[in-house]
Every structure is written in structure tokens, then in C-alpha cells.
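Please, structure for the following, as C-alpha cells.
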Amino acid sequence: MGTTYLDKQCAEAEIITALPHETASAQLPLTYWALKRVIDVVGAALALIFSSPLLAIIALWVVIDSKGPVFFVQPRVGAKRIRCQGRWLWAPTRFNCYKFRTMIHKADPALHQAYVAALIQNDQQQIDQIQGEKTTAKKLVHDPRVTRVGKYLRMWSMDELPQFFNVLLGDMSLVGPRPAIPYEVELYQPWHMQRLLTKPGLTGLWQVTARSSADFDDMVRLDIAYIQNQNLSMDLKILFKTPLEVLKRSGAY
């Protein structure tokens, strides 16, 4: 009998779960995941309803500012819980992540790919060269692909508002590690893969503690710390802290 799709997912999940510092995230009670999903659906639905006038204004602003679609759709790497031989495990999965377009249409991803590679390898000299200056920011600041409107949308994290649709679809949660780009995951060291051991989120521990200031390894450590300790109380604390961090523009450029 041939290998099924589920068998392949289980094999991938086993590889990640067998990494050092194995997390018990997938083994959390079903009540936690049920309550988390309720909070996700209710929270995302309310956010979309109350922000609908703002969403319409941003969409119009993006269209007027530059040629191209309103939304930028990008493949991301997430995770989903699957049942394998009596255990719940996390299996990597891909989904389309939605954002307001902040770059010129059909922008070449090569610059960002080079920056991500330098960031993951902690090559500060290469990071400074790509940034065009010496900087402690762990985010591509001087990106010529970004539009005038895109700069302001990114500054206030408004480009990520469409990801509430991803939350409703179940691809993402309100709280969790940020969803990784496929070419980023290809450069991961084995221990980095542990950040894929839960569903990705709109906000997380990294965003409310060291947004754009921690190096890549520290960001991953924060994601892993969340995964190893995640519970409903932590999720709610992160959710309540997020608006303040956005208003403070912590780490925003």
C-alpha cells in the first residue's frame, strides 16, 4: 500500500516533534483549543465589523497611490494539529496570507530574501550593507519597493488587518508566532523549526516584548517560550498588550 498524504504529514510532524526541548503544545486539553478558537472567531469577526470603514478607506488609499491590486497574497508556512498513532502532533502546512499591498506591484523578492538570509545567519555586516547603514533594527528599513502609502501602513501595522480573514478561515490564530515565508523556513537550523509547533498568529510574545529589536535567534526563542508555556491567560495578556505596542509604534518603521 502506498504512502498516504496523512502518512507524509505524520512523518514531517514526527521530525519536528523529536527536536530538542519537545513542546507539549499539541497535547494541551481540547478545551483550550476550543476556547482559543471561539476567541479567534469572535475577536476576528468583531475586528472586521468595527474596522470595516477603515478597511474601505485603506483599500481606496492603496489603489489611488499606486497601480496594482489592493491585497498582497503571499504563501506562508503554518501548522495544524493532526492525529498520528494516538497522539496529537503539529504538521507544517502552507496557506495564503492576506495583507494590504504596501509595495509596488510584482516587486522582486530578491532583496528581502537576501536580508532574511543575512538575518538568520546573524551576518551583521551583510545586514548593514543591505540596509545601507549601520543599524540595530532587525527589519528591512530602507526598502525601495515600499510605496508612499505602504510606509504609513507598515508604521501602524494596518497592512496586516486583512489577516483577520486568515483567522476566520482557521489558517491563523489571534496569538501565536508570525507565519513564516517558505524561503525563510528553507534556511532554518533544525532547532528553529520548533516555532512551527503551533498555529501562527497575528500577534505574539515577540511582538509585545522585542518587536524588530531582537535578532532572529532571540525571536525564535521567544516563540518557543510561548509555545512551551501557552495557555489562555497568556493569550489574553498578549492580546491586551498588543494595541498599546501598536500605538507606541514599538519597533515600527
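The radius of gyration is 18 Å. Residues 198 and 217 are 18 Å apart (CA to CA).
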